[in-house]
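This follows on from our talk about sequence and fold. I would like you to pick a protein and set down its sequence and fold. Go ahead and set the record down below:
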Amino acid sequence: MNEHLSKQYDADLEAIRTRVLQMGGLVEQQITCAMDGLANGDHLLIDQVINNDTRVNSHEVALDEACSHVIARRQPAAGDLRMIMTVVKTITDLERIGDEAKKIAKMAKKIYEAQRAFVPNVELTHAAQLAIDMLRKALDAFARLDTVAAADVVRQDRDVDAEFKSVMRQLITFMMEDPRTISRGLDILFIAKSIERIGDHAKNMAEYVVYMVKGRDVRHVSLEEIEREALR
């Protein structure tokens, strides 16, 4: 590969990395706005999240195409191929996080259209902040090729799971004590499940970073193994 082609190739890869981070920023904004809409009953914000989901999808399609072009034209090997494969998997998880943000917004809309009657008073903000923090750290680990930070994200998923279980227990108590809260309680449960899934997708993204840097697929292995691989 001559120097000009080599520089162009590096520029193509860098552009793809940058666009992944831009997509991640949009997805993070979607979650934040969905949760704000839920907290404040801001119909404009809720509708904005629902409508912006098409932007998230467009990012995924465009990045998929860019990765396909690089594979077809450059035939990347070793580390570069792992990077491209990581991007393809990462944008799939980002698109699914976007779907969860849209689901939260739709549930928020449903709750407010029902005049918020009999809504169980359950705290979701902390769980959402944990999930957003996981997403932010996973994107940062991707940008800096930081496997130690990636392992930290995987560890943090346990906290999000614990928050979800706590919310579920609270909701069951509310619904048992007052059957009128069942309908809205289930809506809140769906939102809590979406937050938990956002954490799962961020965890996936962190595992892909370890694969990209170390060349080892660490899906379905223990946290301890991932931490050992990250430090190696």
